[in-house]
Amino acid sequence: MTKNHVKPIIKRLRSVTETASAAAELAGILKAGDLLLFTGEIGAGKTTFIQSLAQNLGITEPVTSPTFVLHAIYESGRVMLSHVDLYRLSGNIEVESFGFEDYYDKAVTVIEWADRYSGFREPYLTLHFEYGELENERILTMMPAGGDWAARLCCMQET
What we know:
CATH superfamily: P-loop containing nucleotide triphosphate hydrolases
Structural class: alpha/beta
Number of domains: 1
Oligomer: single chain
Helix content: 10-25%
CATH architecture: 3-Layer(aba) Sandwich
Order of helices and strands: EHEHEEHEEEH
Number of helices: 4
Radius of gyration: 15 Å
Strand content: 25-35%
Shape: globular
Protein backbone atom coordinates (compact mmCIF):
# COMPACT_ATOMS: atom_id res chain seq x y z
CA MET A 1 0.00 0.00 0.00
CA THR A 2 1.48 3.36 -0.97
CA LYS A 3 1.31 6.65 0.87
CA ASN A 4 -1.34 7.90 -1.54
CA HIS A 5 -3.79 5.17 -0.48
CA VAL A 6 -3.36 5.36 3.28
CA LYS A 7 -5.76 7.41 5.33
CA PRO A 8 -4.17 9.43 8.13
CA ILE A 9 -5.35 8.92 11.70
CA ILE A 10 -6.29 12.21 13.36
CA LYS A 11 -6.51 12.52 17.13
CA ARG A 12 -7.72 15.58 19.00
CA LEU A 13 -5.77 15.63 22.26
CA ARG A 14 -7.46 17.94 24.78
CA SER A 15 -4.92 17.60 27.60
CA VAL A 16 -1.51 16.27 28.58
CA THR A 17 -3.35 13.22 29.96
CA GLU A 18 -4.92 12.51 26.55
CA THR A 19 -1.51 12.99 24.92
CA ALA A 20 -0.04 10.43 27.33
CA SER A 21 -2.89 8.02 26.55
CA ALA A 22 -2.29 8.31 22.81
CA ALA A 23 1.43 7.68 23.35
CA ALA A 24 0.66 4.62 25.50
CA GLU A 25 -1.63 3.27 22.79
CA LEU A 26 1.11 3.66 20.16
CA ALA A 27 3.82 2.25 22.46
CA GLY A 28 1.84 -0.97 22.67
CA ILE A 29 2.43 -1.75 18.99
CA LEU A 30 6.05 -0.58 18.67
CA LYS A 31 9.02 -2.86 18.05
CA ALA A 32 12.72 -2.56 17.31
CA GLY A 33 13.23 -1.19 13.81
CA ASP A 34 10.33 1.26 13.93
CA LEU A 35 11.00 4.80 12.73
CA LEU A 36 8.78 7.63 14.01
CA LEU A 37 9.13 11.06 12.41
CA PHE A 38 7.83 13.98 14.50
CA THR A 39 6.94 17.34 12.98
CA GLY A 40 5.16 20.45 14.24
CA GLU A 41 5.80 23.84 15.77
CA ILE A 42 7.77 24.50 18.95
CA GLY A 43 5.65 23.62 21.97
CA ALA A 44 3.10 21.63 19.96
CA GLY A 45 3.62 18.44 21.96
CA LYS A 46 6.37 16.42 20.27
CA THR A 47 8.63 16.01 23.31
CA THR A 48 5.71 15.48 25.71
CA PHE A 49 4.44 12.67 23.49
CA ILE A 50 7.92 11.11 23.23
CA GLN A 51 8.35 11.23 27.02
CA SER A 52 5.07 9.34 27.48
CA LEU A 53 5.98 6.95 24.71
CA ALA A 54 9.31 6.20 26.42
CA GLN A 55 7.63 5.65 29.78
CA ASN A 56 5.22 3.19 28.17
CA LEU A 57 8.15 1.35 26.56
CA GLY A 58 9.50 0.89 30.10
CA ILE A 59 12.28 3.47 29.85
CA THR A 60 13.26 4.42 33.41
CA GLU A 61 15.72 7.24 32.68
CA PRO A 62 14.44 10.83 32.38
CA VAL A 63 13.80 11.62 28.70
CA THR A 64 14.49 15.14 27.50
CA SER A 65 14.72 16.58 24.02
CA PRO A 66 18.31 16.16 22.81
CA THR A 67 18.38 19.56 21.09
CA PHE A 68 21.98 20.30 22.03
CA VAL A 69 23.42 16.77 22.03
CA LEU A 70 21.38 15.78 18.94
CA HIS A 71 21.03 12.09 19.87
CA ALA A 72 20.26 10.15 23.05
CA ILE A 73 19.97 6.39 23.58
CA TYR A 74 17.77 4.84 26.28
CA GLU A 75 18.26 1.13 26.94
CA SER A 76 16.22 0.41 30.08
CA GLY A 77 12.90 -0.44 28.37
CA ARG A 78 11.48 -3.50 26.66
CA VAL A 79 13.06 -2.09 23.48
CA MET A 80 15.89 0.42 23.07
CA LEU A 81 14.83 4.00 22.26
CA SER A 82 16.96 6.17 19.96
CA HIS A 83 15.90 9.82 20.31
CA VAL A 84 17.15 12.31 17.71
CA ASP A 85 16.52 16.05 17.46
CA LEU A 86 17.31 17.74 14.14
CA TYR A 87 16.30 21.27 15.20
CA ARG A 88 19.85 22.67 15.16
CA LEU A 89 20.83 21.02 11.86
CA SER A 90 20.46 22.70 8.51
CA GLY A 91 20.42 20.18 5.72
CA ASN A 92 20.79 16.61 4.55
CA ILE A 93 24.60 16.56 4.59
CA GLU A 94 24.77 17.83 8.16
CA VAL A 95 22.09 15.35 9.29
CA GLU A 96 23.81 12.41 7.61
CA SER A 97 27.14 13.24 9.24
CA PHE A 98 26.39 11.92 12.72
CA GLY A 99 25.14 8.38 12.04
CA PHE A 100 21.92 8.05 14.04
CA GLU A 101 20.69 5.52 11.47
CA ASP A 102 23.12 2.99 12.98
CA TYR A 103 20.38 2.25 15.54
CA TYR A 104 17.48 1.79 13.10
CA ASP A 105 17.37 -2.00 13.25
CA LYS A 106 17.87 -2.41 17.03
CA ALA A 107 15.74 0.40 18.49
CA VAL A 108 12.56 2.37 18.13
CA THR A 109 13.92 5.57 16.58
CA VAL A 110 12.07 8.83 17.22
CA ILE A 111 13.16 11.93 15.33
CA GLU A 112 12.01 15.41 16.31
CA TRP A 113 12.03 18.08 13.59
CA ALA A 114 12.10 15.32 10.97
CA ASP A 115 11.04 17.78 8.27
CA ARG A 116 14.64 19.12 8.32
CA TYR A 117 15.82 16.00 6.46
CA SER A 118 14.49 14.60 3.20
CA GLY A 119 16.40 11.30 3.12
CA PHE A 120 14.18 9.06 5.27
CA ARG A 121 13.26 5.79 3.60
CA GLU A 122 10.04 3.90 4.18
CA PRO A 123 8.71 2.35 6.28
CA TYR A 124 8.05 5.05 8.85
CA LEU A 125 5.23 6.75 10.71
CA THR A 126 4.95 10.53 10.62
CA LEU A 127 3.37 12.17 13.66
CA HIS A 128 2.48 15.81 13.03
CA PHE A 129 1.44 17.99 15.97
CA GLU A 130 -0.38 21.29 15.71
CA TYR A 131 -2.17 23.57 18.10
CA GLY A 132 -5.91 23.10 18.57
CA GLU A 133 -8.52 25.75 19.28
CA LEU A 134 -8.39 25.33 23.07
CA GLU A 135 -5.37 26.32 25.19
CA ASN A 136 -4.09 22.79 25.91
CA GLU A 137 -5.54 21.13 22.83
CA ARG A 138 -3.30 19.56 20.19
CA ILE A 139 -4.17 17.89 16.91
CA LEU A 140 -2.09 14.81 16.14
CA THR A 141 -2.07 13.49 12.58
CA MET A 142 -0.44 10.10 12.12
CA MET A 143 0.47 9.14 8.56
CA PRO A 144 1.86 5.67 7.90
CA ALA A 145 4.31 5.25 5.03
CA GLY A 146 5.18 1.76 3.83
CA GLY A 147 5.74 -1.46 5.68
CA ASP A 148 2.98 -2.81 7.89
CA TRP A 149 2.16 0.52 9.56
CA ALA A 150 -1.37 0.78 8.16
CA ALA A 151 -2.29 -2.69 9.46
CA ARG A 152 -0.67 -2.09 12.84
CA LEU A 153 -2.48 1.24 13.29
CA CYS A 154 -5.89 -0.14 12.37
CA CYS A 155 -6.82 -0.55 16.05
CA MET A 156 -6.10 3.10 16.91
CA GLN A 157 -9.23 5.20 17.08
CA GLU A 158 -9.59 8.71 15.72
CA THR A 159 -10.81 11.20 18.29
